[in-house]
Amino acid sequence: MSDKPLLSLVIAVYNGEQFLTTFFDSIKAQHLDSLELIVVNDGSRDNSSDIIQQYASEFPLFHVINQENQGVSAARNTGLAVATGEYIAFPDIDDVIYPGMYPRLLEMATQNRLDVATCNGTYVYDDGRPSKKIFPSDKLRSTEVLDGPTWLQRALASRKFLHVTWLNIYRHAFIKEQDFTFEHGLRHQDIPWTTEVLLTAQRVQYVDETFYDYLIHSASVSHTPGTDDTRMRNARHYMKILEMLDAINQRYPEQVRKVPACQWQIAKEGLGILHAINNITDLTKKREIIRELFERGVWSLIWKNARGLRQRWRLGRRYFRLKRYLA
Q1: Angle (nearest 5°) at CA 270 between 277 and 157
Q2: Average pLDDT over every residue of 50-76
Q3: Cα separation of 202 and 213, whole Å?
Q4: Does pTM surpass 0.85?
Q5: How would you class 155 by CB atoms within 10 Å of its CB: exposed for 0-12, middle for 13-18, buried for 19 or more?
Q6: What is the DSSP track for 151-182?
């Protein structure tokens, strides 16, 4: 029998005192005998460190790494570098993990020799809106074992796919063989991560069983109206994401031929950039970011990857609006 734990959880923590007790209790409720927790305290300034230490004796393999604040991607990379489990996962501390999630995913992964096992979850809104499934059952159903590109095409074609790490477990050796890491300082890093993982995975399976509540906080940065500066930052993050997606597509041309939606998603995320730019009210800042969009070649990238008349029509209208600001 291997001395390795069956599952390593890499847990990034930054000022998470209000979530940590519920989070650690939910991990205890998984009742896993072979579990490693790697908690990366990413420069927290609240009482997170004290709460983490309170739970250290609750788990046989519990490692704490303290580092200066560098962001969630850097924290994940820190944990990934020292994890020893046969499988690895990256849960978010402010969400809710149901009992049975990791045992179910591990059962799938070990029985079917999976590189990636994934399940469903629920969007839960703190402003009273009704919750809803992340992947609607009429759009994405449970699958047999698929190669990663086939699952990625099916998922993207549903138009309901959410690029996230926290609904999945990964075969650790597969992640190490591919030398995958997270991009430091990049918001929505899960988009390129998930795309590249699935383009290279040989064995993937999805089960339409709900084990995770993704909590959408109305007061969070992602879900409140931004300032012009935050909109510009958001646009630049997405420009970087598009450049990364294009580089991924070029690295895996054979796989991408099986996944035409890889081009579609670049144009789709590009429309998000254009929406952010459209909402910038300061004309000087708007001109600055529009000029950057063209000079970096991001507009050409968006247009090159557009698929279908509807997408090209929407982009064409935006093009003429943008160009007016550079006249």
Answers
A1: 145
A2: 96
A3: 28
A4: yes
A5: buried
A6: HHHHHHHTT-----STTEEEEHHHHHHHT--P
Q: Is the pLDDT of residue 236 over 50?
A: yes
Tell me how far apart the terminal alpha carbons of the chain are, to the nearest angstrom: 69
Among 300, 316, 315, 307, smallest CA distance to 157 is for: 307
pLDDT at 2: 63
Give 286's Cβ-side CA count (13 Å radius): 17
Interval 65-116: pLDDT, tens:
999 999 999 999 999 999 999 999 999 999 999 999 999 999 999 999 999 9
- Burial class for 138, CB neighbours closer than 10 Å (0-12, 13-18, 19+): exposed
- Separation CA 275–CA 108 (nearest Å): 40
- Residues 6+ away with beta carbon under 8 Å from 25: none
pLDDT of 219 strictly over 80: no
- How far is Cα 130 from Cα 132, in angstroms, rounded to an integer? 7
Among 78, 94, 90, 98, which residue's Cα sits nearest to residue 16?
Answer: 94
> Shortest CA distance to 42 belongs to which of 14, 5, 11, 76?
14
Q: Which residue, 54, 62, 57, 94, is CA-closest to 79?
A: 62
Helix 261-278 × helix 148-157 angle, to 10°: 40
Please determine, for residue 148, whether its predicted confidence score (pLDDT) is greater than 80. yes
